[in-house]
Design a protein that fits this description.
By secondary structure, the protein is α+β, with helices and mostly antiparallel strands. The chain is built from nine helices and 21 strands.
Length: about 375
């Protein structure tokens, strides 16, 4: 990709997207309707790559379809660059949409598939040729312009779908689970390509996926959705290491979630009793009191196995799984089983099942969540 192509496509601009109390209720068969999206509000800053992430049925695709104009909100407002979109038809929203299924026309060449949106807008042949050639060059598809979709690999088809979304120079780019049809290795390559292009072009982007690794690797911000609402929104590292709720902690990555009780607390730290051991942890706010019930979240990679005389807790290895780059351990401490991940080359060979070991926590990575749901970092 050349800078000239990037600068040319950048003319589409970068704009802020705002959703205000967005709600979508689908009629029920025998009673009240079902709220697929419930009073959802968020702001996507200009040029930001935001991912809506959550399990099936959480409302992420319905939200995307309302932004695109393919679903009509029951209530609420959608604004792009300060302009309300809710009553504007999809073809006038100037939004690029990349579907999960690619939605390419099998009887059209790559060039004609990409040209189709411009033909619908009745652009001149000269404009169509210039714009399509430019976007095909950008996506390294120029040499494939006369091929048909069935002559392309899955990754090439996905790039054609992306080229078609970019050719109109959209003000907003939407992705609906775009990599779910690709194999694991190709997904890594294509998501890196999408990320690179989005950063180069500066287009505000909303991306939908249920894949947590994909969301963390590609996004500026992640919005975790649950039952039609946003559970937490933040940078990938914030959502991963400082989840606001137990739901977020369980959904993003893997986590050891342990019941604990605050023993003492001041403005900067708290002592918490968990599994019969007392830990002193740093906290960002002094709003904890003795007796408060908390959930102690420890990621598997934030626990170290050491000699049994050196750790915070003592347990027994119940399962040891060598996975090449990592070794996964399940260690029982009393009636509780903790998951621990170590680098595969940390030891000469994995520790054996049945061995007694000590566990030491990285206290900087231990995170407190109030038993009612709200986090205390």
């Amino acid at each position: 990709m050349t800078n000239q192509h990037e600068q040319s496509l950048r003319r589409g601009g970068s704009f802020e997207l705002i959703l205000e109390n967005l709600t979508k209720v689908f009629p029920g068969a025998d009673g009240p309707g079902v709220a697929a999206v419930d009073r959802l509000s968020l702001t996507v800053a200009a040029g930001t790559f935001l991912t809506l992430c959550g399990p099936s049925g959480c409302g992420k695709t319905t939200t995307l379809r309302m932004i695109a104009g393919l679903e009509t909100p029951t209530s609420g407002e959608i604004c792009l660059a300060g302009q309300p979109l809710t009553r504007i038809p999809p073809n006038r929203r100037h939004i690029g949409l990349v579907f999960q299924s690619y939605a390419l026309f099998p009887h059209l060449t790559v060039f004609d598939n990409v040209a189709y949106p411009l033909q619908v807008k009745k652009e001149s042949a000269a404009v169509i040729r210039r714009e399509v050639d430019e976007v095909l060059e950008l996506l390294e598809l120029a040499g494939l312009s006369q091929r048909y979709p069935n002559q392309l690999s899955g990754g090439q088809q996905q790039r054609v779908a992306l080229a078609r979304a970019l050719v109109t120079r959209p003000s907003l780019l939407l992705f609906d689970e775009p990599l779910s049809n690709l194999d694991a290795r190709l997904r890594i390559h294509v998501r890196a390509e999408i990320r690179r292009l989005q950063k180069a072009l500066g287009i505000t982007t909303v991306y939908v996926t249920h894949d947590q690794v994909e969301a963390m690797s590609i996004s500026d911000e992640i919005a975790i959705m649950h039952e039609g609402s946003i559970e937490q929104i933040g940078r990938p590292e914030e959502v991963y290491f400082r989840p606001a709720t137990k739901y977020t902690a369980e959904f993003i990555g893997r986590a050891n979630l342990l019941s604990g009780e605050i023993v003492s607390a001041d403005e900067r730290s708290a002592a918490v009793r968990v599994l019969g051991h007392e830990f002193r942890l740093s906290v960002a706010e002094g709003q904890l009191s003795p007796g408060d019930q908390v959930v102690v979240m420890v990621r598997p990679e934030s626990v170290y196995l050491t000699d049994s005389a050196q750790g915070d807790l003592v347990g027994t290895i119940r399962q040891s799984t060598f996975a090449g780059t990592t070794v996964e351990y399940a260690v029982s401490v009393g009636d509780t089983t903790l998951l621990i991940t170590e680098l595969g080359d940390l030891r000469m060979s994995p520790l054996k099942e049945g061995r007694r070991v000590a566990l030491r926590f990285n206290s900087d990575r231990v995170h407190l969540i109030r038993a009612g749901g709200q986090a205390r970092p």
